[in-house]
Design a protein that fits this description.
Shape: globular
Bound molecules: zinc ion
Distance between the termini: 74 Å
Number of strands: 6
Structural class: alpha/beta
Number of helices: 8
Helix content: 25-40%
């Protein structure tokens, strides 16, 4: 099914075809990338090819939390100075990477590998709850922070998770959402704004501003 550029030599056309199957890359960008690769030294391209071909074999998921890992346990689970009593529950391994960019979270994570979605046949048995059950049952976890997405399914997953562990010793919380830092209220959609209001947190201050 090589059709983007008629007359293009087959090896090049195949590369263009494969690259243009990646998200955000159209046929023109794929051709630019392909020609760029062709102009690079052979060794450099070989290195890239080796990285690509070894990707699946060298990457796996942490047996404890479900994040990306090259070993049985990920570097986050293995870091002794992190607080294992606070666990942030997310949908995908990439969410861990995004949250870690903030560099402020001292706790651990748990990746569900999806979210509840009856339409897609995604029930709780398909998600990584068994491992979380074990972690909660161990009694180490004092707080579960639900950081599933602000979608209908993400909300359903958060509610399900909160209910599942409601009788455990772990306190369950939900990340605050809604008004982004510096965000003007007028640019928010009504759903986001309603949620921001609905999920307001109690303002704690030592000063009594209103007397
Ligand atoms: Zn881990």
């Amino acid at each position: 099914m090589i059709h983007h550029f008629p007359g293009m030599p087959l090896p090049l056309a195949q590369l263009v075809e494969q690259l243009s199957g990646l998200p955000g890359i159209g046929p023109k960008t794929a051709m630019r990338l392909s020609l760029n690769l062709l102009s690079k030294p052979v060794d450099e391209v070989k290195q890239l090819a080796e990285t690509l071909s070894g990707l699946h074999a060298s990457m796996g998921f942490c047996a404890r939390c479900g994040s990306f890992s090259e070993q049985q346990h990920c570097t986050i689970c293995d870091q002794v100075r992190r607080d294992s009593s606070v666990v942030c529950v997310v949908e995908q391994p990439v969410d861990v990477l995004m949250l870690e960019r903030g560099q402020g979270f001292p706790g651990h994570y748990h990746v569900l590998h999806g979210r509840l979605s009856p339409i897609d046949g995604m029930g709780s048995e398909q998600l990584n709850f068994a491992a979380l059950d074990k972690r909660v049952a161990s009694g180490v976890i004092k707080e579960l922070i639900l950081a599933t997405s602000a979608t209908v399914d993400g909300e359903a997953t958060a509610h399900f998770t909160a209910r599942r562990y409601s009788t455990s010793d772990a306190k369950v919380s939900r990340i605050a959402r809604g008004v982004p830092e510096g965000g003007e209220l007028e640019y928010l959609d009504e759903y986001t704004l309603a949620r921001a209001l609905d999920q307001r947190v109690v303002w704690t201050t030592s000063e009594k501003l209103l007397g």
